[in-house]
Design a protein that fits this description.
This protein is α/β, with parallel strands linked by helices and 239 residues long. It contains 7 helices and 11 strands. The radius of gyration is 17 Å and the shape is globular. Bound molecules: S-adenosylmethionine (SAM).
């Protein structure tokens, strides 16, 4: 569970948080773990002995969770210099020395030969009229970052490897599932959770209604975790 515990440092623009047994510091402008982070953490595939990549790592919450759960090596990637600095501090704070944090643009941050057993991502996925904040804005349909992950991640998985990502229903869960199937992955039925509209979605109600993804007067949003597996060598995805 997440507990947000702003301490004295809040006045300096840094807040202290507890997330799934981890201690995290989160500077202003860096995404603090929320219900979507916790939802994905609850649904993480087994990581013992695995090489894990977290895309869009923010404070590093999910990367550190994977490291604490026994991953052999974890790489966290984020485009924000502040997020990268925070994740590095948080790895030290939790004595998780086998977490590397790299600044970069999604999969472009990887070396040509790098492959992973597990890739996780809580990307920005909110439809935005104008992209203002890379923590949550992802183009008019909310798929700007999701589509790039879905297009590039399958080739970075080892045979038998898994991709797990969380997104809002506003960005089209079925589009994610279909694209991953087209890429040759086995995709499990998405796990869904319904909850109250968050403050940003509330503020975007007009845009979401115009796009036809939020019914007039609706007060809830569906979140989904999608898990897809690259078939083991010599096997193709189930139809
Ligand atoms: C919703 S936050 C998730 C943070 C963290 N994983 C969590 O769940 O608490 C999305 C993160 O994606 C990062 N991001 C957005 N676009 C990116 C890109 N093109 N490449 C790498 N990171 C990106 C943002 O800086 C932000 O930290």
């Amino acid at each position: 569970m997440i507990s947000h515990r702003a301490r004295g440092a809040a006045s300096a623009g840094v807040t202290a948080h507890r997330f799934a047994g981890l201690r995290l510091v989160v500077p202003r402008g860096v995404y603090a773990p929320r219900s979507d982070t916790a939802f994905l953490a609850d649904s993480l595939p087994a990581v013992t002995g695995a090489e894990v990549l977290e895309l869009c790592s923010g404070s590093g919450a999910l990367a550190l969770k994977a490291a604490a759960r026994g991953a052999a090596r974890v790489l966290a990637v984020d485009c924000s210099a502040r997020a990268v600095a925070a994740a590095r501090v948080n790895a030290r704070l939790n004595r998780l020395g086998h977490v590397e944090v790299r600044r970069g643009d999604l999969l472009d941050a990887l070396r040509p030969q790098e492959r992973f057993d597990v890739i996780v991502a809580n990307p920005p996925y909110l439809p935005a009229e104008v992209d203002d904040d890379p923590r949550w804005d992802a183009g008019a349909d909310g798929r700007g970052v999701l589509d790039r992950i879905v297009a590039g991640a399958p080739a970075r998985l080892r045979p038998g490897g898994r991709l797990a990502l969380v997104q809002s229903g506003f960005a089209g869960v079925e589009k994610t599932v279909s694209a991953l199937r087209r890429a040759g992955l086995d995709v499990a039925a998405p796990v869904e959770r319904r909850g109250p509209l968050g403050p940003i979605a509330q503020a975007r109600r007009a845009h979401l209604e115009r796009r036809g993804v939020l019914a007039r007067g609706a007060t809830e949003e569906v979140m989904a975790v999608v898990v897809a597996t690259r078939p083991a060598a010599g096997r193709s995805a189930a139809a």
